[in-house]
Structures are given as C-alpha cells and as structure tokens.
Amino acid sequence: MSHRQHSFQGLYNQFITGAFMEHEFWHQRWQQNQIGFHQGDINLHLRQQWSKLEVVPNSRVLVPMCGKSSDMLWLLDQGYRVVGIELSPLAVAAFFSENDLQPTLRQQGEFIAYEIDELAIFCGDFFTLRSVDIGRIDAVYDRAALVALPAKMRLDYAAHMATLLEPNVKILLETFDYLQQEMSGPPFSVPHDEVEKLFHDWCDIELLVSEQILKREVKFKDRGLSQLQEHVYRLVVRESAKKHHCTQRRFLDDAEK
Ligand SMILES: C[S@@+](CC[C@H](N)C(=O)[O-])C[C@H]1O[C@@H](n2cnc3c(N)ncnc32)[C@H](O)[C@@H]1O
C-alpha cells in the first residue's frame, strides 16, 4: 500500500470510528434511558422568544436532533408544520407512543419518515440529510442539538445546516457557556465567540437572552461547574449565504483530505 493510500485509509477509519462512536453513545443513552436532557415542560425560551423570529403560521420548522421533545407539540399548536430529525428509533417511537399518536412510516433516502398530519420525524443521521429529503424549511429550532456535539462536529453541523437552508430562514439557537475544563460534555460549552465563528459568515446574529442559570440547574453544579451561562440567539440566514457555503464546504473538504 502506498503512503498516500495508507494515510487515506487511516483518515477514513478515523472518520468512520468517530461517527460510529458518536452514534453508539446516543443509542446507548436512549437504551439505558439516560436522557437527563429531556424536558417534561415546554422550553421557556421557546415560549418567550419564538415570536421575536416573526415566523408566519403554516411555515415549516426544522427541529434537528429532536429526541422526543414536547417542544414539537408546542410548535404544532402554534400552527406550524414541524420536521424533526433524530438518530434514535427508540426516541422517535417514544415520542409517538407517549403522545398517543400513530404515524405512518415511509422510506425517504437514508431515513425512515414517521408522519402524522403536520408533523414528520425523520429517523437517521442529521449529517446525511439532504434538502431533497425534507424540502423547503422556513425556520429552525435548536435546543440541545449544537451543544450536544463535540467541537469538530459543531463545525460540520453548522456547515451542513447551511446546505439545508435558504436565505431569510430564521433560527432560534440555545447554547451554554461554561468552563469546559470543569465538566466534560455533553452538553458542551459553546461560547459567544464560537457562535460568531460558526455563523457570522452566513447569518445575522442577535443575542436575545443571556443569563446565569447555575442556581436553578443544580445537576450541573453537582457535576463541578462554578458558573453556567445560557445564551439564546436569533440567527437569520443572509442572502449571500449560498455563495459562502460553497466556499466553506470546499474548505472543509480540503481540510479533510
Ligand atoms: C441532548 S439530546 C437533545 C434532544 C432534544 N433536542 C431535546 O431538547 O430534548 C441530543 C439528541 O440528538 C440525537 N442525535 C445525536 N447525534 C445525532 C445525529 N447525528 N443525527 C440525528 N440525531 C442525533 C440524540 O439521539 C439525542 O436525542
């Protein structure tokens, strides 16, 4: 085997192992019911900040890495069409059974689409999702998706998200900011400068909420945090985004060679 073939194989194995481990991690969390991230109630920031995005009813809202979040029901109640993406079939099945809903199933590309009325949850890997699978998206609700990923995958997440979105799409993004050395993620710390780095080339960024939440999030204090800040952003995809993404995708592809 030539040196070039060897190093390519090494990188390929690393990629497969990395993605595989990441998937295994989440499958195990669902199998073992270790889902401390799941909120019984509707997310406070969703209820309080969503109207600031000015998304008209009937719009299609993407909920990446949706788990079995009840926030999807809230969005449906507001008159939106909802498109969830989730890796774990257990999570998807739990969402429908716990809410007494019987979806129909169909194959869509690499995904199984579970559909009922205005809701579709695509079960599979977000990073293989294509625009043709989900169609036009008008808004995105990201709670515990970006922060669920380690640093390298956050770059891929933002780059991949950009391939799915057209200009003017609005995104509600919730992040945590804490000293990463005090706790291993997930959830990971995604400080403001990283949000800038991931999104400023293709989105307008507005910080809507910034608050210290350690007092009410005791479980994170128990995990060793001395401070914990939550940020909520309104992002709007810029007109020039498509051009930027072609360049950024090339940059990422070159970096992976
Ligand atoms: C921290 S949980 C958040 C779930 C949900 N957003 C919520 O607020 O409850 C992250 C979710 O992302 C899912 N996930 C992880 N990697 C994924 C991937 N590559 N594609 C789709 N879903 C993924 C996990 O199975 C898990 O349900």
Automatic annotation (TrEMBL):
SUPFAM superfamilies: S-adenosyl-L-methionine-dependent methyltransferases. It catalyses: S-adenosyl-L-methionine + a thiopurine = S-adenosyl-L-homocysteine + a thiopurine S-methylether. GO terms for molecular function: thiopurine S-methyltransferase activity. One of its GO terms (cellular component) is cytoplasm. InterPro entries: SAM-dependent_MTases_sf, Thiopur_S-MeTfrase_Se/Te_detox, Thiopurine_S-MeTrfase, TPMT. S-adenosyl-L-methionine binds at residues 30, 65, 86, 143. Signal peptide: none annotated. Keywords: Cytoplasm, Methyltransferase, S-adenosyl-L-methionine, Transferase. It comes from the Bacteria. It is an enzyme of class 2 (transferase). NCBIfam families: PRK13255.1, TMPT_Se_Te. Belongs to the class I-like SAM-binding methyltransferase superfamily. TPMT family. This is Thiopurine S-methyltransferase. It comes from Methylomarinum roseum. The lineage of its organism: Bacteria, Pseudomonadati, Pseudomonadota, Gammaproteobacteria, Methylococcales. The gene is tpm.
